[in-house]
Hints:
7-stranded parallel β-sheet, Rna Polymerase Sigma Factor, Chain: A
Amino acid sequence: MKNIVILGSTGSIGVSVLKIIRARPDCFKVVGLVTKSNLKTLAKQIEEFCPSIVSVANKEKAKELRSLITRKVKIVFGEEGSMELASCDNADMVVSAIVGAAGLSPTLAAIRAGKTVALANKEALVAAGDLMMREARANNVKVIPIDSEHSAIYQIMRGETKKSVRRIILTASGGPFLKTPKDELQHVTVKRALRHPNWNMGKKITIDSSTMMNKGLEVIEARWLFNILPSMIDVVIHPQSAIHSMVEFYDSSMMAQMGPADMRSPIAFALNYPKRLKVDLPRLDFTQINSFTFEAPDFEKYPSLQLAYDALEKGGGAPVALNAANEVAVEAFLKGKISFITIPIITEKVLGKLGIVKVDSVSTAISIDKWARVKAREQVL
């Protein structure tokens, strides 16, 4: 029986994690849940999974939650509350699925407390990858990715050595605009951008997929997660989304990890690591797949992907600013304030204003994040 804390339990990843736990109550027990403000969903989760402690955004939310539940549970709040859950004594694994910079401090707290971390919070590695992984190595903590692409690489690398790797190849679906000419992107609507061909995801990550910023952020994550040079990380478009990523070794052999386009598969792998978990999930049926196709990404059509490589090369706080500015730009697009093609333009302008800033603490990363958001909002206005 593995005791689980879920940071971000009411989001899409958190809900999927709980589906796995619901299906295998013989393997997992929920001991803590964290959400910001989705109290009705959290209340239902408390009634079903009976955690001993939960955390919400602030004191007012804590009072409101208390009125919604019948079970006895300790309620804490704020950043201190989420950090308390992340480092609580009876947790074996912490699922880090809080969206945004709010996930940085509790993820680091979990690592420093020696907890195994199942990582779905991109910002942890995009904003402070060097810091997070140094702390993980120092505390002998395993950081197991939940992203399908990084999970694929993690699975492939089991039993292999980093020295044997020639390159990592992240696969990308190409999003909804793979066959759309570049000059038509200026007319893209929000509704059209949210129509992903393969994955059912939240709005922000779906827009990131359509600009390929999501893949750019994954490049940055892979650099730190696998301690590999940026020049050894490639991206290839694979519209079928059946191969989740590949690793090429120095003997020119290549290994790929395949499976259905269902996030519950990498979640199940992470939760029950190092053993695989028997769960009832869709299976990949090769008789229903006519072909696997691959093509190189068009960096002119997808400038956000190039910006991610540029930020990684610049180093320091550049990836933090990249992520924060992109979040503001995506939000502005979703609200109809800017056009689709303006998203990378705003991000590039913010990156151009940032000097070289070393990220040696979470507080530094958060400061850069806040600065970049202010600069990005100035571009929107």
